[in-house]
Design brief:
alpha+beta; 9 strands; about 35% helix
């Protein structure tokens, strides 16, 4: 999926890329309260333990921790880990439901970012990695780093 303007990332879920193979990505809106938007703008959000679940005819972001600001309204009692509804088109919902229920995929929140001033979530269709897959990924990453070091040293010596 290509986006025209580059999005300004708020937070990324790096653990998801370590523990899962990400097959497909999708941008979805979030239903947020005012204090949550203020806290997200202040960078007080964590996606590490979050996932996406299908309930009551919609996808919900579960386990996303948004720490309320001290200056949040005094008349509300903020819940930092409440489930937050994801806004997706019916076509996207139908496609993802089929893959989650039949093919055994998991939906993960990959990152939160701004798009045209709104907070959006990038959701990915994920399949779990085995331990040997994680080792292979780490080996590839280290090899790429080593290759870059060698190329940099060769350019510097020439």
């Amino acid at each position: 999926m290509q986006r025209n303007p580059p999005h300004m990332s708020i937070i990324q879920n790096r653990k998801a890329f370590h523990d899962y193979f990400i097959e497909e990505k999708l941008e979805a809106g979030l239903v947020l309260e005012g204090w949550e938007v203020k806290a997200i703008r202040a960078g007080r959000v964590q996606l590490k333990e979050s996932y996406v679940d299908w309930k009551n005819g919609a996808f919900w972001l579960i386990g996303c921790h948004i720490t309320p600001l001290q200056s949040a309204s005094t008349h509300i009692n903020p819940d930092p880990v409440r489930p937050r509804k994801l806004l997706m088109s019916q076509e996207q919902i139908n496609r993802f439901i089929g893959k989650v229920e039949r093919a055994g995929y998991t939906m993960m929140a990959l990152d939160l970012h701004y798009a045209k001033g709104n907070v959006k979530a990038e959701v990915g269709l994920a399949k779990g990695k085995k331990l040997h897959d994680k080792r292979d990924t780490e080996k590839d990453r280290e090899w790429q780093r080593e290759k870059q070091r060698v190329m940099k040293n060769q350019r510097g010596a020439a």
